[in-house]
Amino acid sequence: MPKVQVYNLNGEKVKEIDLNPDIFAIDVKPEVVQQVVVAQMANSREAIAHTKGRSEKRGGGRKPWKQKGTGRARHGSVRSPLWTGGGVTFGPTKFRNFKQRINKKVRKKAIYMALSDKVNNNSLILVEDLNIPEAKTKSLIEVLNKLPLKDKKVLLVLDKKNENIVRGASNLPTVMTLPLKSLNVVDLLKYEFVLMPENAALKIK
Questions:
Q1: Closest CA to 114 of 180, 195, 188, 167
Q2: Mean pLDDT over the full length of the chain
């Protein structure tokens, strides 16, 4: 059963708790984590590039010249892809769909693997209560410096709404706050350390 130190906001070790081995002590399978990361990033992707087809181009409602008798090739619209200023054939459109479906159990297992990896690398930091008296970046930096998190990339996981922490972290490019219900693999892998209240760790399942 994995054991993790719990700190107070002065950086002092106050106790050691046992964590659920089904969440924090499972074997990490890189292929499972990679599958979930790829799916999550694909699902957050937006189709930005868009080219207009002939039906989206303005004008071209009249046949440019009669079908026969001119000696020229037959054409039905000046907005044909063959014409300058016409539509684009097979260009990228905003209607593309990059969505990937992922099994809920697989996604949950990947999150547990990422958390287990944090425990294995001593990168999960628990505190008795994560709070600061005022919504100031300076106050949050003081707390992080007292913990083993000085100048580290930190993911703050909150089990309840805390505006002081969220606003205090908003000016720190290496710190991100995340509600417990939004815990995901990509953010867990992106940040070197995870900081959360003791209660959040116990609520994860």
A1: 188
A2: 93
Residue 185: per-residue pLDDT: 96
Would you give the DSSP letter of residue 181? G
Containing structural domain, residue 33? 3-45+101-203
Question: How would DSSP label each residue in 27-54?
Answer: ---HHHHHHHHHHHHHHT---------T
Residue 71 to residues 65, 84, 173, Cα–Cα distance (Å): 11, 21, 67
Would you give the DSSP letter of residue 167? H
Phi, psi of 3 (to 5 degrees): -115, 135
Same domain, 93 and 168: no
Structural domain tally of the chain? 2
The whole-angstrom separation of Cα 39 and Cα 107 is 10
Q: Are residues 180 and 89 in the same domain?
A: no
Model confidence at 109: pLDDT above 90: yes
Cα separation of 190 and 152, whole Å?
Answer: 12
Q: What is the CATH number of the domain that holds 159?
A: 3.40.1370.10
Judge if 84 and 116 occupy the same domain: no
CA distance 82 to 38: 38
Question: Of 137, 190, 121, 132, which is closest to residue 158 (Cα–Cα)?
Answer: 132
Across the strands, what pairs with 17?
Answer: 4
- Do 150 and 190 share a domain, yes or no? yes
- Residue 129 clears pLDDT 90, i.e. is over it: no
Question: Rounded distance, CA 4 to CA 19, Å?
Answer: 7
